[in-house]
Structure formats: C-alpha cells, structure tokens
Amino acid sequence: MNSIENHDLAALIDHTLLKPESTRDDVEKLLREAEELGTYSVCVSPSMLPVETTVKVATVCGFPSGQHAASVKAAEAADSVSKGADEVDMVINVGLARAGKYDAVREEIAAVRDAAPKPTVLKVIIESAALTDEQIVAVCEAAEQAGADFVKTSTGFHPAGGASEHAVALMRRTVGDRLGVKASGGIRDRAAAEAMVAAGASRLGLSSSRAVLEGGTAGSGY
C-alpha cells in the first residue's frame, strides 16, 4: 500500500519536459497530462514559454551545465518571468562550488534572485552527485543567503547521477524548514519518490509522473 495518497504526491510534482528534442506538441501533451494528474506545476524549457495551463509554470536557466555568466542566467530568468514563469530553477556553476568559491556561487544566485524577484519562486540546482557533503552544505547555505526559495539536487543530465536520499536528507538538515528541497533526476518509480519525500523533499521533479503515480516504473529520462 502506498504511504502517500496519490493526490498528495501529485501536489508535490513538477511535471517535467526538458529534453532538447522536445516539440511544441510534446509540451502541449505535458500540460494536459499535468492538469489531468493534478501535479503542482509543469517545468519546461524557456524557449517553450509562454504556455497556457491551469497549473503553475516552472522553467530553467543556465541549464544544464551551469557554465554561463551570471548576467546571462539573470537575463534568461527575467525573460522567462516576463513570459509567465512562476518558478525558475537555476543551475549553479558547479565548478565554482567544487573549487570552494562559495562567495561567487552566492553572488550568481543573488543576481538571478534580483532579476526574478519574489513572488517568483527561485530554486537552486546544486548538482549534488558531483559535490562532497561539505560542498553540498556550503552551497545550500549560499543559496539561503542569496534569497533562494528552494535547493534542488540535480538537473537529471549530469553523468555523476541524480537525486539520492542521502543528499536530500543533508540538504534538508542544512536549510531546515526555511527553504524547500526539490529532489530530481532518476526518480522513476513510486518507491523512489516516496523515499525522497521521507528524506525531506518538499517537491519532486519527474518526467514520468503518470508511471510513478500509478505505481509502475518509468524508463530512462529526467
């Protein structure tokens, strides 16, 4: 038996389509499916904005590498908000984090925060699988200091891997109840989704939401 009711689990999901080969028709299917399933939001590439849907709209910036100038990330975020995005998931410069340059990480997050001020929700993708525990903690602290609303595990595109229960739990301990924690990348079945929630995730990034909600196992993907 599932420990989380379907409607409660769906309400935590950013129903996601970020594959570079996606078409406008693919996005339209995503929107209708999100509405049918009752997910919290959709998450689509910025080039697909604006969209019309009854759920919240999230997008990404600096995606997927994070190796963009902070000014470019900020401009991308501002453009997305002008086209109706309610939430922006930004990728940090992971190389800065791995080099211990946490002030620089904080500054780039702050630049995006300034470009996409509240009530826009800002999620910070830290690529946790590529970081040590010490680096995860430091980057989460930088995100909080810069005014982010969420920290997020992964893009789902990094070869180091996606979300893990360990990373989610560490991120939750670091930010307490002050920020949200989004688990994304490699969550392909109901058990994995519920495990991430149990570890402390308050949002889930899923590309195969229907399969997860129906208790099956999804194929490869975000």
Automatic annotation (TrEMBL):
Catalytic activity: 2-deoxy-D-ribose 5-phosphate = D-glyceraldehyde 3-phosphate + acetaldehyde
Annotated EC: 4.1.2.4
Domain of life per record: Bacteria
Pathway linked to the protein: Carbohydrate degradation; 2-deoxy-D-ribose 1-phosphate degradation; D-glyceraldehyde 3-phosphate and acetaldehyde from 2-deoxy-alpha-D-ribose 1-phosphate: step 2/2
Record's keyword annotation contains Magnesium: no
Cellular component, GO annotation: cytoplasm
UniProt enzyme class: lyase
Any one of the GO BP annotations: carbohydrate catabolic process
Active-site residues, record numbering mapped to chain: 89 (proton donor/acceptor), 152 (schiff-base intermediate with acetaldehyde), 182 (proton donor/acceptor)
Protein's UniProt keywords contain Hydrolase: no
SUPFAM superfamilies named among the record's database cross-references: Aldolase
Localization of this protein: Cytoplasm
CDD domains assigned: DeoC (cd00959)
UniProtKB keywords: Cytoplasm, Lyase, Schiff base
Recorded coiled-coil stretches: none
GO terms of molecular function: deoxyribose-phosphate aldolase activity
Role noted for this protein: Catalyzes a reversible aldol reaction between acetaldehyde and D-glyceraldehyde 3-phosphate to generate 2-deoxy-D-ribose 5-phosphate.
HAMAP family referenced in this protein's UniProt entry, alphabetically: DeoC_type1
Protein family according to the UniProt entry: Belongs to the DeoC/FbaB aldolase family. DeoC type 1 subfamily.
Protein name: Deoxyribose-phosphate aldolase
Organism expressing this protein natively: Brachybacterium muris UCD-AY4
Lineage: Bacteria, Bacillati, Actinomycetota, Actinomycetes, Micrococcales
Gene that this sequence comes from: deoC
